[in-house]
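Backbone geometry:

***
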Amino acid sequence: MKKCSIEEIKILEYTNKYKDKTIDLLIKVAVKEHGFKEWENWFRIFENQKYKENDGICYIAIDNNDNVIGTVSLKKLDNISGEVRNFYIEREYRGTGIAQKLLNTIIEFAKIKKYKRLELDSYKEFSRAINFYKKNNFYLRKIENNKFIYSKTLKEEKISIIVAIYNIEKYLENCIKSILQQTYKNLEILLIDDGSTDSSKEICDKYAQIDNRIKVIHKENGGLADARNLGMSLAKGKYISFIDGDDYIYPTFYTNLYDLIEQYEADISECNFLRVNEDDIENIEKIINKENQKIIIKEKMINGEEAIDELFGTRLQPYVKKVVVWNKLYNANVLRNIKFPFGKLHEDEYTTYKILSNSKKIVTTNKILHGYVQTKNSIMRREIKQKRIDDNLDAYEQASNFFEEKNDIKIEMKCKRRYLENCIELSGKVLKSENKNKDEQLKDIEDKFISYYEKYIDNIILNSSENREKKIVKIIMLAYKDIKTKGKNIGEYWQKLENFVNK
């Protein structure tokens, strides 16, 4: 075959006139060149014109001898998505720009049909094609049955990102840069400087001059909850995201979460995260890439009740993934009437169950898209102060009251069980601490544990259905028994409890 120039190549809508030549190309590339023999029969009965039905189409590339040297099809997946299929190029024409012309044509058609995203699948054998997809901003979304499924966003709704900032000059630039490097571009970035006394406020102002999507709000110090609440009152996006100013987000964080929330018509989309030591900040993207290569990327849809069940469940990892707000994208509607509690630690534990109660659909991926930087000055890693103890337990007491008002005794009792678990955990941490007032703290936690236990344990047992929950209740009961009979501290059961919930 004599190769002609790209200017001589025509991109045409497929007709049956080219059926045999198109099938010959498909078999030549996929079956004979790459060894997918099982596809041959399917190709031989293939009719590209069927894609025209229901908002699909097929295009072919024709050389000056009327030979088919490339083909690409579009099939409707759902109301917002199209699937790119049968994308093959004659070997001699790869790298000449023909593939790009075909892809551009199918993208323009998809936009006319008002698709918001495209999807395609490939196999590891097609490494050159995969590199081409990545160059065109397709990202790996998941892996199913050895198929690599890639996605590309065509229409971007506005996302408002609320970044609460207080005296984190060491980490802030890294966080802001990770936001600005997102493949998703329609962002409103609200940097809420909560009365910083270091150079954080100057860093915010510097980046506002660099990127006009950034809006900086300087305010008096009021705490994380106050900063987030202010951000919510100012946000204009259809979707809202909360990012801590000392964390890092992967380049496709918003593209991934937006595609999920749109495709599944969900209220919340959620990703996995990785704890990263602050000394590894410069290598976070490489570390996350390495970890993602170890897993099979999957997606799961659950409803609000199932999400709440995970939140108050018996395993640590699903709980942590559910309770935090910074690994999620929210439809702004589910945040209406939601306020983070002023002056409290454990803000997420005070609010997440309310947000999930507002939600009908939550879609989650196990793909790691967030780097949770473990800083030496993190609130959650400092000395165990009394306020941390009080707010932690108060959050679960308020949650149990919330579900009591909803007459959901099953979840109410799960909250009360978690209250008793947290008493054990907090006592264990205080025991290991060098707190000067540890004896008073241990006595305070023990008194609360005994009071709660004696008031609610019978109902907790009655509403404990799964075996794991029953085993946790047995640990709680043993801790109570040993307080009464042996004078042991409940904190001595923390390691046993932690080992179990980490299983």
